[in-house]
Specification:
Blueprint lengths: L1 H18 L2 E7 L1 H4 L9 H9 L3 E7 L17 H9 L3 E5 L7 H4 L5 H13 L7 E6 L12 H19 L2 E4 L19 H15 L1
Parallel strand pairs: 1-2, 1-3, 3-4, 4-5
Length: 209
C-alpha cells in the first residue's frame, strides 16, 4: 500500500512539473516597458499572448535605463535587476542599448562589451542549467530624439552586441533589420506603437518557440 502511495505521489509530482509554465523574463528599457509593465500593448504582454498558456512572461523593462554600469541610469541599479534573478527564468530576453547611444553614456563605450557579458553571466547564474538567453539588436532609431543616435547603434554598438552573444553562447535576435520598414509605427522616431510592439513580439516568439 505504501509503495503504491509513493508511486502515486511521484506521478502527481511529475504531472505538476510537466504543467509548470516556461518562465520568460523580458529585460530592457522604455521600448520593453512600453505604456506600462502590465499594459497589454507592451511587447512582453503581446509576447505572452502569442506564446500561450505554456509560458509565463514578465515585463522587467525600466524606462531610460542603460546597459552600461557607468551610464546615467544603469539597469543594474533597479529592483527589476534583482527581480529577474529571483524569478529565475527559463528564458531571458535582453533588449538594452538604445539609451547607451546617448553622448553622456557612449563615452564609456569601451566598457560596453564587458558590461554586456557580465550581465548575461550574472543572470545565467540564477537560471536553470538548460536556460536560454536571447540578446536583441536594438530596433532602428528613425529620428534622432532624446539624444539617442542611430549612427552609433549601427556603426558601433551592433558589433559589440554580436560579440557579447558570441562570447557567452547567447542567441542573437536581430530586431533592427526586420523593423527598418516600419518607421511609421514609431511616432517619436524611437518608441514603437502598439502595432510595432506586436511585430516585435512576433519576431521574438518565432525565436523562442
Amino acid at each position: 500500500m505504501n509503495k503504491l502511495f509513493y508511486i502515486l505521489l511521484l506521478f502527481i509530482g511529475q504531472e505538476v512539473l510537466a504543467q509548470s509554465p516556461i518562465k520568460v523574463a523580458c529585460v530592457g528599457n522604455s521600448i520593453t516597458q512600453g505604456p506600462g509593465r502590465e499594459h497589454p500593448d507592451s511587447y512582453p504582454l503581446q509576447l505572452q499572448e502569442k506564446l500561450g498558456k505554456k509560458y509565463h512572461v514578465i515585463n522587467f523593462g525600466v524606462s531610460g535605463r542603460t546597459l552600461l554600469k557607468n551610464g546615467d541610469y544603469p539597469y543594474w541599479n533597479e529592483p527589476q535587476f534583482e527581480g529577474v534573478k529571483s524569478f529565475a527564468p527559463d528564458i531571458l530576453v535582453i533588449k538594452l542599448g538604445t539609451n547607451d547611444s546617448k553622448p553622456q553614456n557612449w563615452k564609456y563605450k569601451d566598457e560596453f562589451l564587458d558590461n554586456y557579458v557580465e550581465m548575461i553571466e550574472t543572470f545565467r547564474a540564477s537560471m536553470p542549467e538548460n536556460g536560454k538567453i536571447y540578446v536583441c539588436l536594438p530596433v532602428p532609431v528613425f529620428k534622432t530624439n532624446f539624444d539617442i543616435t542611430e549612427e552609433i547603434i549601427v556603426n558601433e554598438m551592433v558589433q559589440l552586441i554580436r560579440q557579447a552573444a558570441e562570447k557567452t553562447g547567447a542567441s542573437l535576435i536581430d530586431m533592427h533589420q526586420p523593423m527598418e520598414k516600419y518607421g511609421k509605427l514609431f511616432a517619436d522616431g524611437v518608441h514603437p506603437n502598439k502595432k510595432g510592439n506586436k511585430i516585435m513580439a512576433k519576431l521574438i516568439a518565432k525565436e523562442i518557440r
